[in-house]
Amino acid sequence: MLNIYQQTLSQSVNFEGVGLHTGLKSKITIKPGKEDQGILFIRTDLSKNNQILANYKNVSSAKLCTTLMNKNKVKVSTVEHLLAALYISEIDNAIIEINSEEVPILDGSSKEFLNGLRNIEVVKQSKKRKYLKIKEKVDLKLHDKEISISPNGFSFQIEFKLNYENEIIGKQKNSINLNQDNLENLYSSRTFCLLEDIDNIKKMGLAKGGTLENALVVDKNKILNSDGLRNSKEFVNHKILDLVGDFMLSGYRILGYVNCYQGGHQLSCQFLSTLFKNSSSKFEILELETNKITSISHEKYSSRVAVNA
Ligand SMILES: [Zn+2]
Question: Annotated catalytic, 298?
Fold first, then answer.
């Protein structure tokens, strides 16, 4: 059953932990949000220009994690697992206060966010939710990576294929329907990396907070985490989770079939720009009613929502 109305939380919920890339401790408070507001980050360590809307137009970097930046160059990074948790929790509007630049990585998946959000009642608001329904296929190729979205009736399905030379990761493939499937393996799948890449990632100034407590690390033919994998497709499932988080930046609930090969944050974020810039005839924005569907204009709706809050 698709929700007709927008939803938010009935009360606040807190999380704290270390940032994967900065290594800095941070605390977030997710608070109820206003209708049509979407997900708004507020940097409480700054006194002005501290609001950053979770929108694809505000993506400043998508290298290894998704970073958002407002017009005053204030940033918030590693937003994807939190945004995926909000998508899966059916939350449309929320304010996220954060006292640092990076969202805590917690266990490397969306599981702890989901568990915290499940203790809070989600409440219906009076405005209708906006769905983006694909009418015609849109695709994007970047080097060896590829992503497309095709019509899929009234559900959001993601098929993902990985092709790693590493023998443990190898050619993993999975397909998950966000509206119909049990999502536990999706939201509990952790971020991962190859041991041989860690030096380079650290040289880039990233992964300062990375440990075996918050990431799967693969060394040739073995997994270094003593508890092994949480599910047999944990690698590809995590890539699907990242995609859900990045697609939350569209500002809509998606009705379409995504097919992604070797993608990541960069491809997903660039794809959203392509979709909205060049392919607006290939989707429609809908409001649902019990017996009726109303089509509304994306241009009109998105112009009402401030992008650089
Ligand atoms: Zn991730």
Answer: no
